[in-house]
Design goal:
The structure is a single chain. This protein is mainly beta. The chain has a single domain (2-117), classed as Gamma-glutamyl cyclotransferase-like (Hypothetical upf0131 protein ytfp). Helices cover 13% and strands 46% of the residues. The protein contains two helices and seven strands, in the order βαββαββββ. The protein has helices at residues 12-19, 65-72; strands spanning 2-5, 27-38, 44-60, 82-91, 94-103, 109-110, 116-117. A five-stranded antiparallel beta sheet has the order 1-3-2-4-5, with no helix packed on it. The protein has a two-stranded antiparallel ribbon with strand order 6-7. The longest helix is centred in the N-terminal third of the chain and has 8 residues, at 12-19.
């Protein structure tokens, strides 16, 4: 299963330590139609934005890793911090289906450049 990462999960050593497995080196990937913002407590998030794109990495992970990643990313909280969604990323000349954790925080942003999402608690 493919996972698109754009923040804390981009470091191979960190992701391997979290999952407890050795991973193949990732591929560089580009996600169009989203932008990266800073969410609560400075956490990186992506939200839909047709005019933007996000650079990241594409990992091959096991299906069993998703439950742990959902917990790590706060996708299992009520309300969730992130939603796990299927996205299409570009890897070289190829378009690839991958999972990504998309910000589920309120869409109210403020600031310039690295926008912030409305106040709330982080994980």
């Amino acid at each position: 299963m493919k996972l698109f990462s754009y923040g804390t999960l981009m470091r191979q050593s960190r992701l391997e330590a979290l999952l407890g497995v050795k991973l193949e080196p990732p591929q560089k990937a580009l996600l169009r139609g989203y932008r990266r913002i800073q969410g609560p407590e400075g956490m990186p998030m992506i939200i839909p934005d047709a005019a933007e794109e996000v650079e990241g990495l594409l990992w091959e992970i096991g299906d069993a890793d998703l439950t742990f990643l959902d917990h790590y990313e706060g996708a299992d909280l009520k309300p969730p911090l992130y939603r796990r969604e299927w996205v299409q990323v570009q890897v070289g000349d190829e378009i690839v289906e991958a999972l990504a954790y998309v910000g589920a925080w309120p869409r109210e942003t403020e600031g310039e450049g690295g926008d912030n999402v409305g106040a709330g608690s982080g994980h």
